[in-house]
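Problem 12. The chain below contains 426 residues. Write out its predicted structure in token notation.
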Amino acid sequence: MKGPIARATLRTTAVFALRLLLQALTLLLVTHLLGPAAYGAFAGVMGLAVFFGALAGCGMPLMQIRAISRDGGQGAGLPYAAPAVLLVGTVLLLFFVPLCSFALPESALGVDALLALGLAELIMQPLLMLYAAERHGRGEVARAQLLQVLPLALRALAAGVVVAASFDSPLSAYAFAYLLATLTALAVARSGGQVVATHRWRFPCRDEWAEACGYAATDLSRNGPTELDKAVAARSMPAYDAGLYAAAARIMAAGVLPVMAMVVSALPRLFRESVGPELWRLVALMAMIALFYGSVLSALFWVGAGWIDIILGAAYIGIGDVLRSMCVIIPGVALRLVSGSVLMALGRPWMRVGAEFFGVIILVCVGVGLPPYIGSTGMVIALAFSEWGMALVSSALVIKVLVSCRDSDAIRKSEMESEVENGDGP
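Solution.
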């Protein structure tokens, strides 16, 4: 993987390393602040918030990247992106608060705190992603990732302030600090962005809504297994076990960030590349790197899981065993990230949606059925079936699409040669 993608991957990996450090710091602060039981409930609420936030984005960040990339990085983006996000995010917010109150009553969050988290994840974060997408489409991948890292840094700072202040209700205090951090990050992104001016805003037309639905479903399915599992765990497991599982899952997800760095660096080229030998080699190389990295990371986590118990303290004793049981999942997660993104770049978002909703169904069914009997092990089994199922199905679909496109190109080339030989060509 030579040239611009390799250089962009290195720069983006550096940004993702910073992101990893910030996530680790935030995890340490929040787990210390809340304890396993409260953290499990909070992670469940945030899992639903991120899940809804993916739908609120309407797929507009991906459409923004595609539009600006195809315009040579010169365009201002989509005039209907921000209005669509504001409309859908507001509607979803009306459902998010009562759903959390009903489905996760043990979270002990009031309506005001749920509203704060909903505003942050369903409206402000998707808008921030539009500004990051604008940078990404211009080839400024590292800068785009820095915009996404900014709220993480501010949330880590907010968590530190809440820990130091010793509030009577730390969970509610952190919810409002989370909102303030996201709002500040959005203000910074807006001050330096070039997204379409407000006076040119409009709502999408019917065809644009239809296209957006495909990308929104892709975002929703992509975030489903990695976020919805915390909500399922909070619902089907004791609070303490749910907290251990959620913390271990966050650590695992942070570990695969370098694979995500490779994927986001390659997206502009994948959008531009026509089907051919170069694309075959690029996709195969990305898949091999993902599997190799996932295997190495699994080995490292297996050896070092005991240190996680020490780092998080006595309140989280047992998290190392949960993390060790997740090691078999990591290569599948890495492969899914690559194959799903390739399907999207090849113009097959609904194939990715189908593969990943298949994984979501497995996750929910197994995640509800097993944990009441075998605890966190049941939730890990559910996630393993889900991730590997999605990885294998989406990889098979990528091969099918590439073979189909290659055969179609070969047929067209043969027909053109026949026309030339028969004197029917130009």
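Discussion. Residues 244 and 319 are 5 Å apart (CA to CA). Students who got a different answer should revisit the alignment rule from Section 12.3.
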